[in-house]
Amino acid sequence: MSTFHRFPLLPTELRLQIWEATIEPRTVMVCFSYKPKTNDYLLYPRLQTCTPVPAPLQTSQEARSHLKGFYQQLYSEQPVELEFPIERFDQTIELPRRYVWFIPAIDIVDIGENQLERLRQAAPLVQRLEVERLERDTYWLWLEAETEFPHYHSLKEMRVVTKCDFSAYVKEDSLGRRWPCAKEGVILIDANGKLKPITLMALVNGKVPDERVGEPEFLVGHRHMHDS
């Protein structure tokens, strides 16, 4: 039986508890498309995601109204400044706000190879973040740490998918590199799929990453969204 027809007859308190029981951690994959708005030198990012809206939010008015107390809207309208002007438009283009439902405490926001700047407006809400930095060095840290990390002051976990040797991140730590969360929450993921994920704290304490044996490799390029 796919439909529980007597569900509406249950006590309200019990129904709400059942709706809450549907909440589970998700990885919310986010990318951006860029549209002009009013300025020839500015493009405004629009959030896109291939992660479905949580089903209970679309089940009933009761479920949506109750669960909206747990979920928040993730959105960003941080403009991108251009060096050269784009083609002029004859009229202002009003863009509807795009947002993604997520629960900051349990959901991982995966922005892939996008720069942290793209999510700056929503950064204070994000507690768990995943980024892909596929360069074979840690130069991205110098580019983004000083300007963007301070905006992510609520961050408790940061997953970094990288092709760089993990020892390079240990060296950055020895040079005083500051992260937006504790080192126990910085998780390095080998984009080549040869090593198991490991925290920066474990590496700093001398732990050697375990090799993957008989496990499927981590698939880089698992993101299926395309900018438009």
How would you explain this protein's 3D organization?
The chain is of the alpha/beta class and 228 residues long. It folds into two domains: 78 residues, no CATH class; 84 residues, no CATH class. It contains five helices and ten strands, in the order H-E-E-H-E-E-E-E-E-H-E-H-E-E-H. Strands 4-2-1-6-7-8-9-10 form an eight-stranded mixed β-sheet. Strand 1 and strand 2 form a beta hairpin. 21% of the residues are buried.
Question: Can you describe this structure in just a few lines?
Answer:
Helix content is 18%, strand content 22%. With 228 residues, the chain is of the alpha/beta class.
Strand line-up of the largest beta sheet: 4-2-1-6-7-8-9-10
Q: Quote the average pLDDT.
A: 82
Low-confidence stretches: 80-86, 88-96, 218-228
Distance linking N and C termini: 42 Å
Strand elements, count: 10
Domain 2EXR: 4-109
Organism: Phaeosphaeria nodorum (strain SN15 / ATCC MYA-4574 / FGSC 10173)
InterPro entries: 2EXR (IPR045518)
Protein name: 2EXR domain-containing protein
Key features of this structure:
228 residues, alpha/beta, 2 domains, eight-stranded mixed β-sheet, two-stranded antiparallel sheet, 10 strands, disordered C terminus
Question: Secondary structure elements and their pairing?
Answer:
Elements: H1 12-21, E1 27-36, E2 42-49, H2 61-67, E3 72-74, E4 80-81, E5 100-102, E6 108-112, E7 128-133, H3 139-148, E8 157-162, H4 166-174, E9 186-190, E10 198-199, H5 200-204
